[in-house]
Amino acid sequence: MRLAIVASEATRAQEAYGTIVGEREWAPLAVADAVVVLGGDGFMLQVLHDMLDAGRVIPAFGVNHGTVGFLMNKARSSRTIEERVLRAKPIAVVPLEMIVTTNAGEQVRSFAINEVSLLRETRQTAKIEVSVNGKVRIIELACDGVLVSTPAGSTAYNLSAHGPILPLGSNLLALTPISPFRPRRWRGAILPDKSQVVFRALESDKRPVAAVADQTEVRDIQEVRVAIAREYSLTLLFDRVSSLDERIFAEQFQV
Length: 255
Description:
This protein is an alpha+beta fold. It contains 5 helices and 17 strands. It has helices at residues 11-20, 41-54, 81-87, 157-160, 244-251, and strands spanning 3-7, 34-39, 60-64, 89-93, 96-102, 107-112, 115-120, 126-132, 135-143, 145-149, 172-178, 189-192, 197-202, 209-213, 216-218, 221-228, 234-238. The chain has a 6-stranded antiparallel sheet with strand order 6-5-16-13-8-9, with no helix packed on it. Strands 12-11-10-7-14-15 form a 6-stranded antiparallel sheet, with no helix packed on it. A 5-stranded mixed sheet has the order 1-2-3-17-4, sandwiched between helices.
C-alpha cells in the first residue's frame, strides 16, 4: 500500500512525525492509496477539505496528537502504522454541500463534514425563514442561529446546542436551533438525509447573519441551501476496537 503522511504544526504532532517517518517509505499525497494524519480533529477536517478541494479523496487514518481526537485513533499502539492501516475499519462519511448567496449577490460553495451553521453577526437577534424540500416550515425563527448536522458531526456543535445524537448509517440529518427565542417551544427536527434545507435571512441589512461550513465562514448572507453531497463521500479509517460509529453510540450514555 502506498501511504502518505501529513502532520499539523503542533509540537506533539511534529514530534510524532519525527518518530514515525523513519518506519517506511512514504508516497506523495497525490499518488497515495491512503494518508496518515497526525494531529487533532481540526487538522483532520483541514486535510479532508483539502482533498475535497483538490478533487482526489483517499482514505484517512488519523492519529490523535491534539485535544479531543473524536475523528482520530489513539497514539499508543503495539503495532506499526502500516499494520494499523491495513487492519483498520473503514467508515464512510458523507459531507454536506452549502451554497450561499450573499447580500451582494455573490455565490459561495463549500462542504461541511460536521455541520453548516448560521449565526447572528451582531447583538441583534437573527430572524431566519426555514424551508425543507421546497416548503416553508418556519416563517420566522428568532434565534442566535440554526444548524444542520451530519451524523458524524452530531456529537460536536449540534450536541452543545442540545441537538440529537445521530448514529452513523442512520441516513438522517439534525436541524437544530441555537438559543431560539421564537417559536419558543421549537427544539429542532430530525430529517431524512435526502432533504434539502433552505435558510433565508430576514431583515438581513439590519440583522446580518453569517454562514459557516466547518471552517469556512461567509458573512452577510441572504440565502443558504444545504443538502447531502453523496458524490463526495469520504472514508475514515479506525482501529477496530474503537471505531467512529461506536464512539457516537457511546456518547448517548455519557453522564
